[in-house]
Design a protein that fits this description.
- This protein has helices spanning 2-26, 37-52, 63-68, 70-75, 92-102, 129-135, 154-172, 180-183, and strands spanning 30-34, 56-59, 81-82, 107-111, 114-116, 121-125, 140-146, 150-151, 198-202, 211-216.
- It has a six-stranded parallel β-sheet with strand order 1-10-7-4-2-3, with helices on both faces. A four-stranded mixed β-sheet has the order 8-5-6-9, sandwiched between helices.
- The chain has eight helices and ten strands.
- β5 (114-116) and β6 form a beta hairpin.
- The radius of gyration is 17 Å and the shape is globular.
- The protein is an alpha/beta fold.
- It has a single domain (2-216), classed as NagB/RpiA/CoA transferase-like (Rossmann fold, 3-Layer(aba) Sandwich), CATH 3.40.50.10420.
């Protein structure tokens, strides 16, 4: 009986991923399905990166992206300009300057806070560099999305971010002082360190195929 239940759950998960893929493609995103992070890395390096011919790359904060190992591989690629915006050795002024510079790269990598079964992206940012890059600037954007980020609709995406993603992301950054670090839930705070400042809902990729999505059949990221 247990095996039957697990098989049914796996089938339902695959069907949900497939529905999400079809919806994203209908909304002009370029979509790939990966069984795990290693396959997501292979897809990036073998299918996505070669036709782009990127000369420069940068990224937004994403645990799912980090889990794929794509960044480590790209950093070793000869001739590829890598714009680092997260080094602790850099001053805050330098980081912000590089994040502005990153909006002009050929390839930007990151994740998403939620993706709907109707093929829309839902994101909430602190500084805005991640959602800015998704929206405009970099020639190509690749998003790595675990199956746990899939929600029925935009309203569910917003709820997921407020109840799950935002508090957990705040907890990752120990230097921040926000109420959700104490309560583990959103209080719509007025903290100077508030990480919930800019909402972004992406209904379609423009131009067609500019945003590439790698859906990963694993629980990845926050």
């Amino acid at each position: 009986m247990t095996g039957s239940m697990e098989g049914t759950r796996d089938t339902n998960t695959r069907q949900r991923l497939e529905r999400c893929r079809r919806a994203l493609e209908k909304n002009h995103f370029e979509v790939y399905l990966a069984a795990h992070c290693a396959e997501a890395r292979e897809i990036t390096l073998e299918k996505i990166f070669p036709p782009i011919g990127a000369k420069s790359v940068s990224w937004g904060d994403s645990l799912t992206l980090y889990a794929t190992g794509v960044l480590d591989m790209l950093k070793e690629r000869p001739g590829l300009e890598v714009i680092e915006t997260f080094s602790e050795s850099l001053s805050r002024e330098t980081i912000l300057s590089r994040r502005r510079e990153a909006l002009g790269v050929d390839l930007f990598l990151t994740g998403t806070n939620a993706v709907t079964e109707t093929g829309k992206l839902v994101n909430l940012d602190m500084v805005g560099n991640r959602v800015s890059a998704i929206t405009f600037g970099p020639k190509h954007v690749v998003l790595y999305i675990g199956r746990n980020k899939i929600v029925p609709n935009v309203a569910a995406g917003i709820e997921r971010i407020r109840k799950v993603a935002a508090p957990r992301n705040a907890l990752r950054h120990h230097h921040l002082q926000t109420p959700c670090q104490e309560t583990s839930c959103c209080t719509d705070c007025d903290s100077p360190d508030r990480i919930c400042n800019t909402w972004c809902i992406t209904e379609k990729s423009y131009p067609r195929g500019r945003i590439k999505v790698v859906l990963i059949n694993r629980e990845e990221g926050l």
